Amino acid sequence: MRQPLVAGNWKMNGSLDSINTLLEGIKAGLGEVKTAEVAVCPPFVYIPQVVQMLSDTAVSVGSQDVSDEESGAFTGEVAGTMLRDVGCTYAIVGHSERRSIYGESDEFTARKFAAARRFGLTPILCVGELLEEREAGTTEAVVGRQLDAVIELEGIAALGEAVIAYEPVWAIGTGRTASPEQAQEVHAFIRNKLAGLDAGVADKVRILYGGSVKAANAAELFAMADIDGGLIGGASLQAGEFLGICTAPDKA
Ligand SMILES: O=C[C@H](O)COP(=O)(O)O
């Protein structure tokens, strides 16, 4: 039985003050969350503050990215060792905003996935197609290719110790959520693809859905057989909305 995971990706949002307020709000409602594991992924600079504020809770903290390198002359990079040092347990890799805005390739993403694991972080590997790729009928080819880059570098077993997030790019921040059936179709494709290589990995890996998830639509998405929680952007910046999503698995 896979425990659902609801992870908030705050992206480049927040300030010392607003994060205090957000976390106070989340902490006040955590007692209502019965089933899901909860995680938040703040901007790098706020991670120590967030780890400290959540130290009396079971909420995990992750980073939004991680360097593919360990240390040295890599200006602007943040290493997995540093993220572990300040209390992270997860690292998002290959978010579509990294892929599309900053040109990060499948191979580069795979190296970041490897680095996260090497330094003791659980990668949350994001995959997903652009609107034009969906319309061209290439969703499975794109998602399959993104997964293959990681499998080729790290091996199939590594995915059993990671989290996958399926995020159709056309649903991110657009208010246009994939329907539960559309999401389930791709989640099932991912799980079946992994099952073809290692049934144990496919059974174990949590596959999150991301893209305009809100308290109002989370329960129907999370009720699908292969959707094991969500990676939440905008709605994770509002305590009430985020808690509404975190408690959605309790209603299944
Ligand atoms: O990482 C989170 C996703 O990009 C989803 O963002 P969103 O919930 O604002 O659509």
From TrEMBL:
Keyword Chloroplast belongs to the record: no
Active site: 95, 167
Subcellular location: Cytoplasm
Enzyme class: isomerase
Binding site for substrate: 9-11, 173, 212, 233-234
Transmembrane regions: none
Main location: cytoplasm
Gene Ontology biological process: gluconeogenesis; glyceraldehyde-3-phosphate biosynthetic process; glycerol catabolic process; glycolytic process
Catalytic activity field: D-glyceraldehyde 3-phosphate = dihydroxyacetone phosphate
Pathway membership, UniProt: Carbohydrate biosynthesis; gluconeogenesis; Carbohydrate degradation; glycolysis; D-glyceraldehyde 3-phosphate from glycerone phosphate: step 1/1; Carbohydrate metabolism; erythritol degradation
Keyword entries, A-Z: Cytoplasm, Gluconeogenesis, Glycolysis, Isomerase
Molecular function terms, GO-annotated: triose-phosphate isomerase activity
Gene3D superfamilies linked: Aldolase class I
Alphabetized SUPFAM superfamilies for the sequence: Triosephosphate isomerase (TIM)
Keyword Isomerase part of the UniProt annotation: yes
InterPro entries, alphabetized: Aldolase_TIM (IPR013785), TIM_sf (IPR035990), TrioseP_Isoase_bac/euk (IPR022896), Triosephosphate_isomerase (IPR000652), Triosephosphate_isomerase_AS (IPR020861)
UniProt-listed Enzyme Commission number(s): 5.3.1.1
Quaternary assembly: Homodimer.
NCBIfam families for this protein: tim (TIGR00419)
Function: Involved in the gluconeogenesis. Catalyzes stereospecifically the conversion of dihydroxyacetone phosphate (DHAP) to D-glyceraldehyde-3-phosphate (G3P).
Family the entry assigns: Belongs to the triosephosphate isomerase family.
Protein name, as recorded: Triosephosphate isomerase
Species whose genome carries this gene: Thiohalobacter thiocyanaticus
